[in-house]
From TrEMBL:
This is Uncharacterized protein. Pfam families: BPS1. It comes from the Eukaryota. It comes from Liquidambar formosana (Formosan gum). One of its GO terms (biological process) is root development.
Amino acid sequence: MAGFLTKPNKRYDVRSISMPTRSHPSTLRVEEELNKLKSWEASSSSKAETICTRLSGLGVLYRCIEDLLKLPLTQQLLAQNQHEKWVNEFLDGLVRYLDICSKARDAVLLMKENVGELQSALRRRKGGELSIESTVNAYICSRKNMKKEITKSLAALKQMDNKIGASPPLNLDHHLSAVTRVLREASLITISIFQSLLLLLSVPVLNPKPTKWSLVAKLVHKGLLACESRQEDMNEVGSVDFALSSLLMQNSGKFFEAEKIQSAHERLEALNCSIDSLENGLECLFRHLIHTRVSLLNILSH
């Protein structure tokens, strides 16, 4: 059923990480934000509101990493180890995260445009214009194309996840060891949150096209009603699919027709608000990822 997502696998331990007490306060702050994100990730919720919270927390995490990179000791040790493989891997990871963040933002903006067109079509239908099928079909087609692109990004994230998970621990200076550890933890949590976001955007599409065969229509309608009691478990994208499928069922009477239009309006508005929050979260995270990469490049160039 659309709206029910498989939670991505986690390669990190959900337990809190704990640095030695003599770790620098900036390292401890990164640790604190990591533990907070991990506790949120332990939640099974796949709704946009939850993912927006995680994106915001991820932005805070990278801001703390920027502060960690500004420490003279961090800069000195990184400069001395700038040719190490793990340094290049982290830089490469930031480039990939920026690419995926950009693609996710494009997908969110496209969905926002499609939702706006659906809202306009519903207003016209409420005013007496009955045809909405073409707009819904365009929405479904766009979602399917989006899913194909998202599948590629999910595959890239999975590959990165496996690579980081297979990396052996490094025998480094205490402070540098702490830095590399939190950077790897940050990479793993970034991958996990991006996976959750992309799964939300690519939730399986429920084809709402009405059938000409009344028996099949009744069976489909019965199935929708059976799922209605579980709508609280749906995310915002799946909830819109449900409303569109219900709206396009024929012969429901004027009262139920108006009720279904109102329901679709409400769910589209909820999705639109979620999209705005996702857009803001992705833009903020994009800026922090850029700042983190620039800070690291500046250190390595001296």
